[in-house]
Structure formats: structure tokens, C-alpha cells
Design a protein that fits this description.
Largest sheet: 5 strands, mixed
CATH class of the domain at 47-152: Mainly Beta
Shape: elongated
CATH topology of the domain at 47-152: Immunoglobulin-like
Order of helices and strands: HEEEEEEEEE
Number of helices: 1
Distance between the termini: 127 Å
Radius of gyration: 38 Å
Helix content: 10-25%
Number of strands: 9
């Protein structure tokens, strides 16, 4: 029986020594977790998305009775939709009479809301407009963004 005890104590001693040696071995320090780099995505650029001529506009500056054909005595309205706007963006329009390339009127507005905006402009003339083709150029922050055309006929 004494032999068994000897082997048991010896076996236990060897196991403890092996565990101690393994525990004292060189440990690799954990590598820092790599975080994938996230590139900043710039916000979408402000833009004029629609130019709609109409007989009128409603309280939200949206076109009512859209058309591109007007009579000389009509008031000509345009609703301009901008997207991705930032408060302070400037929207300017230039109305042109194409047969003579004459500027009829220029007007502008500073956008106050971020995101989508509707703005409205109009031209009218007591004597009526000369028949012909007209063009409206919409500029956002000084850059030509969209063009629309309409016709005045008797």
C-alpha cells in the first residue's frame, strides 16, 4: 500500500509542477481590436429638383394648374422645389424672353428651412407679354441648377 501512496504523491507533484511551468510560460499580450475605419460621407449637395410653371400656387408654394402655355395677359407663376437645402442657401431666378435674349425679371430668396423647400416666383405685365418662347434659369448659390421653358401665345 505504501507504493500506491508514493505514486500518488509523486504523480500529484509532477502535475503541480507541470501546471506551474505552463502557467509561468510566456504569454502573448492581446492584440488591440482593429476597428474598421469609417470614412465620413459628405451630405448630399443642395439642388433644384423641379421647376413647374402654373396658373397659380397654393399656400405651400406648390404649383396649382401646371402648364407651360400662357396668354399675354396671364400672371405666370413658377414653383421651384429644392432638396438637401441648408438654411441660408440662396435661390435666384432669371426670366428670359428668348427671341431677343432679354432679361424680363430677376428675383431671389434665401432659404430658411433645411431639406426640401418649395419657393414660388411670378411675373405679370399690365400691357401683357409679347408672344414667344421664354426661359427661366434657376440658380442655387450662384450656380445654374435647372432651366425651364414656357410659351406665351394669343
Amino acid at each position: 500500500m505504501k507504493m500506491r501512496t508514493f505514486f500518488s504523491v509523486t504523480t500529484i507533484a509532477l502535475l503541480v509542477t507541470a501546471v506551474a511551468l505552463v502557467g509561468c510560460g510566456k504569454k502573448e499580450s492581446p492584440k488591440p481590436a482593429t476597428v474598421p475605419s469609417v470614412e465620413a460621407v459628405p451630405p448630399p449637395a443642395p439642388m433644384v429638383s423641379a421647376v413647374t410653371f402654373a396658373k397659380g400656387v397654393d399656400v405651400s408654394w406648390t404649383a396649382v394648374s401646371p402648364t407651360s402655355q400662357f396668354k399675354p395677359s396671364d400672371r405666370i407663376n413658377v414653383s421651384i422645389k429644392t432638396e438637401n437645402a441648408v438654411p441660408g442657401n440662396q435661390l435666384m431666378v432669371k426670366w428670359m424672353y428668348l427671341p431677343t435674349n432679354q432679361l424680363v425679371k430677376a428675383d431671389s430668396v434665401v432659404l430658411k428651412e433645411a431639406g426640401v423647400n418649395n419657393s414660388a416666383f411670378f411675373i405679370e405685365r399690365a400691357k401683357g407679354f409679347p408672344p414667344g418662347n421664354y426661359e427661366l434659369n434657376a440658380y442655387l448659390n450662384g450656380v445654374l441648377s435647372k432651366t425651364g421653358s414656357f410659351t406665351v401665345a394669343k
